[in-house]
Amino acid sequence: MLTVKDKIVGVLGLGKSGQAAIRLLLKKGVREVYGVDCRRIKGLRPVRKVKFFFGPEEKFLGRIAGVDFLIKSPGVPPDNILLQFARKKGKEIFSELSLGLQFCRPAKIIAVTGTNGKTTTASLISHLLTRAGLPAVLAGNIGQPLTGLVEKISATTILVLEVSSYQLSDTTDFHPDIAVVLNITPDHLQHHRSFSEYVQAKKLITANQDQRDYLILNADDKIVREIRTQAKKYYFSVCRRPFNGIYWKENNFVLVKNGQVQARLPGDCLKLPGQHNQENAMAAILAVNLCKVHPGLISRHLRSFSGVEHRLQNIGSYRGVTYINDSKATNVASTIVALNSFPGKNIWLILGGLGKGSSYRPLRPLIRQKVKGILLIGQDSPRIENDLDGTATIYKCQTLKRAVSLAASQAEKGDIVLLSPACASFDQFRNFEERGQVFARLARQLGVR
């Protein structure tokens, strides 16, 4: 176990993960913490034994030279100057996830990754386990850092983790009992430099698994289904029957083991719309079934799962126009999923924010089919306008407030105002949650209920 007591520790990145790591380090008797971030963090107050440093990171090389080891927050890029300096000095670098795992020993770890669907799937797994009477804790990239929850985890707990490519790249000793890979499409290319590097990061979820473990894969995603592993493979699919796993047939979820049907769960148990949610549900059903939860219990508790905030969240309607908060759509693939969830050409689409280096051109066919108008916000607006020119009328709004106001003035009865930005939020908001909350507030100010 990592020794923290009486050590001097540097924490790089002071968002949710970094702050949670600092609180855990203080509880474990650290001598002093140096918290570093290139941006000043609003609301961060001085704490005994903690010194905060904000601004150009090269100013703090001397501080890093004096630490015993470093904790790296997920969003800190691997070529960060302080990380390079620490490596040259022989300092050990741990991820926030690694730090949390040092101080908890759960009965089982279920880890979920993928470009899209992670939050819904991890939340559904936790929901099904808890409703079945099993002690489960949900943590990770879902917005609840593991280091903030270690005291709630005992030897009987099933730990459900949403893990990002950033976290997997930083956590070389990660070993889940059950790993889930939902899908892999281009994302975070500004961080990983290439799609190939991003794919390799996702594959790290199974790097330390062995024959006692399970890997759940999407059989309909070519990159995912070909992932190599030492673990036992189970597959989910909407178009083919796996030898071990689950598939969708005639409005039923069909569980299969060694080629034999084990159970059928009615598809109408799932209240969330869209094929993507059928896929998320199949992955969750498999993971929970591998924890020995009976299919009948799974079926019963699927009905009570209503989804997650900021993912195709129906805010309400006003004058016949429906407002949908999909702020969690931070990449193009996720926005494609959102557009596919609605029939007809009746969408006013709010796009934009901080781009991730991907082209927006894959949106063109769906926008032609489904979108009445595009309302652009944020930093990457010029690139989006260039990529989507000629598909629908484009309105340059810059801010979310102007976009919602303009959409409300243009939309007619039966239309949908959809915030599904295909971009990160950090150019105008603290995170995608704040962006979604602002959208919901603006909609309600219009009279949406």
With helices defined by DSSP (H or I, 4 residues minimum), what is the helix count? Answer: 16
> Strand order, biggest sheet?
7-8-6-9-10-11-12-13-14
* CATH fold-level label of the largest domain: UDP-N-acetylmuramoyl-L-alanine:D-glutamate ligase
Please tell me what the overall shape is: globular
The mean pLDDT is: 95
Question: In whole angstroms, how far apart are the ends?
Answer: 52 Å
Main sheet overview: 9 strands, mixed
Overall tally of domains? 3
Q: Helix amount, in percent?
A: 25-40%
The share of residues in extended strands comes to: 15-25%
CATH classification class of the largest domain: Alpha Beta
> Which stretches of 5+ consecutive residues score pLDDT under 50?
none
Task: Give me the count of strands.
Answer: 20
Radius of gyration: 22 Å
CATH architecture term of the largest domain: 3-Layer(aba) Sandwich
**Structural class estimated from helices and strands:** alpha/beta
CATH homologous superfamily of the largest domain?
Mur-like, catalytic domain
